[in-house]
Amino acid sequence: MLIIKPNYSLKQLNTFSVEAYARWYVQIDHEKDLSELFADHIWKNERLLVLGGGSNTLFVNDYEGLVVHIRIGGIKHRIDGNVIYVTAGAGEVWNDLVNYCVDHQFAGLENLSLIPGSVGASPIQNIGAYGVELMDIFYSCKAFEIETGLTRTFNKVDCAFSYRDSIFKGKLQGKYIITEVTYKLSADFKPNISYGAIGQELKARGIDKPSIKDVSQVISHIRVNKLPDPSTIGNAGSFFKNPIIVQEQFEHLLSKFPDIVYYPVADKDRVKIAAGWLIEQCGWKGKVVGHTGTWKNQALVLVNHGNATGDEIFAFSAKIIESVHDRFDILLEREVNIIK
Fold it and tell me: Out of 1.10.10.10, 3.30.43.10, 3.40.50.2300, 3.80.30.20, which CATH number does the structure's domain 5-70 have?
């Protein structure tokens, strides 16, 4: 039987370690729990927040509604020739899934090593890192429709993926709860090591022909040295999206700032700019204001130095957005979900 808990602290359920309380809280361990929960129409009409690992969330205030904490576990796979279909419960820790695939020599997830969060959030956010995005290896997901109580399977086209976005953040936001995700991986490993410092680190280790495990370990090493550990200092990883601008604007910026850090995108008329570089150029890297600030090794990451409120972190991010816009005429967009 489900237990609905009132006035529940969320501090341990968000990686920013910001104190906030949910008016109501329920933990979901099995898909059938959702059917039981929403059989009561009271909860269908209640304000809802679906929470996984809390790694991409900033609570600015207490949550006046029901927090549905997804803890559905389990990982399994099916092999079809050189293609491997790996299915994981939405509540699985993302990096546990990555390690499962690396250990089994299933190629495709290794560049996404050590990303915080849960499996269920991966298609919602279209997570990505080091030249790979979730949509590159996504096959399908199962989701529970709150209104009808039915389960629907979404394929890649259904999800309408784009940069750090999907249909679950758009017109279907708040209508479905993802319960499991299936990824299409490969037995043929073709290393993707052109992004960032992966190639340099492999060379420094004397590795000419990297294995899946080599790539995963190198990326984990880079992330550990570049990004703060949420278990020791509150943060949500990259706080802002890397902005994508039109070619004309990019060429104008390049003429003024020849060392600007940028990446090509599929649309040749657009260019992705490194948000961390923009923020650092405005003098924010490692800056501390009150109980919050940016990480000393990566300006893209905002941190909680111990007692920051969600409102304090949000206000700090607004100052960064304003200064970047003033200098570069680029409006940064928050990647983190702001819960008010």
Answer: 3.30.43.10
